């Protein structure tokens, strides 16, 4: 049956059920999440995220799809290529606009080539290259692709860049104490000290899901979210309307951890629940208490996963401090196609030197595992050796 490719700019033109089936019901690649980014005005042309969703039809059926954005900058990507952009500029070449296959402002690994089989993923990747080439764009970048995507992207001729995140793995713990018992004594002591400080300060926690999350709670969370960005000297990427749309469309998949002191909210962390994992996304506080950040963002999420039998908690991008909270280093990847062969060769050389350094860094992190040796050896999950 004939295959037909097309580009569209509005996700409302795509059937949500068909898109989500191809996305394997990953909540952060789902139609609802991406549409909220678009409708709230967060990921649109005016913010440097011009949507160009690549579709592959076989007959009348949507066989594959890909979230693509024409980018005029590199903000909100969490894979840093500004050095590449400067190198292009120094030689009088335009790096922007570039084509990006990613979920805006969301450094979460998952499917980017949304297809049911390897052949369709390869076809989609090659067509995306032709879109970039045909429009004389400098490059095409696929951020945080899944393992299946990486296999297809490698076959399509992409270069790969390695990075690291920190994920927690559930070993069928009965409760938080059993999890802590598997940790080395200094790490276990530190977590318990942080919890004790929160308890002594009169802090209590609530897990809000679905209908339990009201507008007042979301308003408070957004105040915290904005404050976190402002404290780092940045304006927040996402607006209140995005979280309103997310609340309407995805309420059952939201977990809001609310920290309170004498009945008054003082901190909040918003997580998104998938089929077998919890994604830590946003946090903030309005009152400083030692250890509150780690308890609200990480330990409460881990305890939730233990109570609900969730297999993995993804703690988000960056942050060696997550290692001491029971999260382990995990490889992540980005894939890159560069139109100019001279610069493709230079970047390939850069990656050839960078990748062993990143792999060695991940090895060193594993050597400083927070778990007892016999526990660490038994923990599942990606290890630093191997490719994407």
Automatic annotation (TrEMBL):
It comes from the Bacteria. InterPro entries: Acyl_CoA_acyltransferase, FemAB-like. Signal peptide: none annotated. Pfam families: FemAB_like (PF04339). This is GNAT family N-acetyltransferase. It comes from Candidimonas humi.
